[in-house]
Amino acid sequence: MIKELDSVVLTEDLPEYGLKQNDIGTVVLIHKGGKGYEVEFVTLDGETVAVVTLKASQIRPVGKREIARVRRVEKIEP
After folding, report:
1. Rounded alpha-carbon distances, angstroms, from residue 67 to 30, 54, 70, 76
2. What angle do CA 14, 42, 69 make, to 5 degrees?
3. For 30-46, how does the pLDDT look when each residue is reduced to its tens digit (9 = 90+)?
4. Spatial distance between the Cα atoms of 3 and 55, rounded to a whole number of angstroms
5. pLDDT tens across 2-20, in order?
6. How far is CA 65 from the centre of its chain?
7. Biggest CA-to-CA distance, the chain
8. Cα–Cα distances in Å, from 26 out to 12, 40, 58?
9. Domains of the chain (ranges plus CATH)?
């Protein structure tokens, strides 16, 4: 079960937000008992890239023995 403040992994690209599959975000709000989630994605230096409302199928929990990667985020204008 995914809880608030859990790290989660994006399961699909969201180009309109500059996000790619496997980006890691933090759950900041749970909607309707887990049918949806508000997830914040930030750079490693703390800049918020996007806060996005996602369906449960668009994220997954971080798995055991996974390792993070680094990529540069292109600036997306609001």
Report:
1. 25, 23, 10, 26
2. 80
3. 999 999 999 999 999 99
4. 14
5. 999 999 999 999 999 999 9
6. 19
7. 35
8. 16, 5, 13
9. 7-61 (2.30.30)
